[in-house]
Amino acid sequence: MSSLVPSILRRPSAALPTSGPHGAGRRLLIGAAIVAPLVLSACGTDATAGHQETADGETHSHDDGSHAHPEDVTLEHVHGLGVDPADDSLYAGTHYGLVHITSDGELTRIADRVQDFMGFTVVGPEHYLASGHPGEGQDGPGNLGLIESTDGGQTWETLSLAGEADFHALDAAGDMIYGYSGGRLLVSEDGVEWADRGEMRIADLAVDPADPQRLLATTEAGLVVSEDAGKNFTAVAGAPLLVLVDVAADGGTAAGVAPDGTVFVSTDGGRTWEERESVGGAPAALTVEGDEVYVAVGAAVLVSTDGGETFTELYRES
Predict the structure, then answer these.
(1) What dotted CATH number matches 20-49+75-316?
(2) How confident is residue 21, by pLDDT bands cut at 50, 70 and 90?
(3) Rounded distance, CA 259 to CA 83, Å?
(4) Cα pseudo-dihedral 234, 239, 244, 250, rounded to 10
(5) Which H or E run includes 36?
(6) Count of CB atoms within 10 A of residue 257's CB?
(7) Nearest by Cα to 221 from 205, 242, 206
(8) Which terminus in the chain has less CB density within 10 A, N or C?
(9) 318 falls in which pLDDT band (50, 70, 90)?
(10) Mean pLDDT over residues 142-153, rounded?
């Protein structure tokens, strides 16, 4: 697919509450069959993870983590990475819990909670947002909706959309929260009421902390950007094909990873890009903070401290 396909989409999801207009304007409508490999790569989803892709673009979990024991800490199926500014530590949202990764590659599962964390993102000191599915013996619906922790992942509170949304991509800055669930882009200013921007096939999204109305999204047709909180999107001229994208807290540094693992870095918020090193395989999760770039590949996490020029293994599953 060589060009973007604009379309007016005013079809709100009956299952999801919305507020305000349903995002009138130009939209992207990308064929599900074409974009499926890109989306699956970003979600780190496969048969062994206990997920099944349905016709609506949603991926539902039917694995409650019952074969993962609390004493077994693993980075199998990483769905999100984030650096907590409270202690500059790396955290990974995985299929079997939220995991703290030290600079020496030591793993600790937070609160010994075996739960599937999807769309995990750090939004402030000890302040996290996520989605996902409950673990063995946990109460709650199959889809957790938007959940929030303000104590470093020790406890979580449901904010909205319990039983309805499973955010596979999630990011926030300022008072804006963006989530991708069921093939639709949803936007909220309080985590409770959501505006449905319409159908859009994407793999990942990243909000610009310097301008929370500005949103980058990866699609099979290429990297696109919205300057009006997801109402309208245009292609980023000259951008590489990316499956994952992230913008650092400074708002200027951005990183992206191609489907083959090639890393690209931007110093102007994702407007222009330069090729860097490869992480050697299809990426599962990405986060960037200044010159530090973290990429999950399979059951390994690689780190660069020089803006993606070189990478070393922080952790690899034995």
Answers:
(1) 2.130.10.10
(2) very low
(3) 23
(4) -90
(5) helix 32-43
(6) 32
(7) 242
(8) C
(9) confident
(10) 97
pLDDT (tens digit, 9 = 90+) per residue, 192-214?
999 999 999 999 999 999 999 99
71: confidence class by pLDDT, cuts 50, 70, 90 = low
**Mean pLDDT value across residues 276-283:** 97
Residue of 123, 119, 81 whose CA lies nearest to 100 = 81
Q: Which of 40-54, 102-116, 286-300 has the lowest mean pLDDT?
A: 40-54
Q: How many CB atoms lie within 10 A of CB 110?
A: 18
Q: Which is nearest to 261 in space by CA: 317, 206, 308?
A: 308
CA-to-CA separations, 207 to 146, 173, 247, 248, 255, in angstroms, rounded: 17, 7, 7, 9, 12
Question: For residue 264, is pLDDT > 50?
Answer: yes
Return the number of other C-beta atoms located less than 10 Å from residue 50's C-beta. Answer: 19
Beta bridge partners of 285: 296
Question: Which DSSP category does 281 fall into?
Answer: S
To which H or E segment does residue 33 belong? helix 32-43
pTM for the structure as a whole: 0.81
Quick check: 225 and 245 in contact, CB under 8 A? no
Q: Which of 111, 106, 113, 191 is nearest to 147 (CA)?
A: 191
What's the burial of 137, exposed, middle or buried (CB within 10 Å: 0-12/13-18/19+)? Answer: exposed
Please give the mean pLDDT across all residues of the chain.
82
Q: State how far the Cα of 218 lies from the Cα of 242, in Å rounded to an integer.
A: 6
263 with 279: CB under 8 angstroms?
A: yes
Q: Which amino acid is at 298?
A: G
Residue type, 99: V
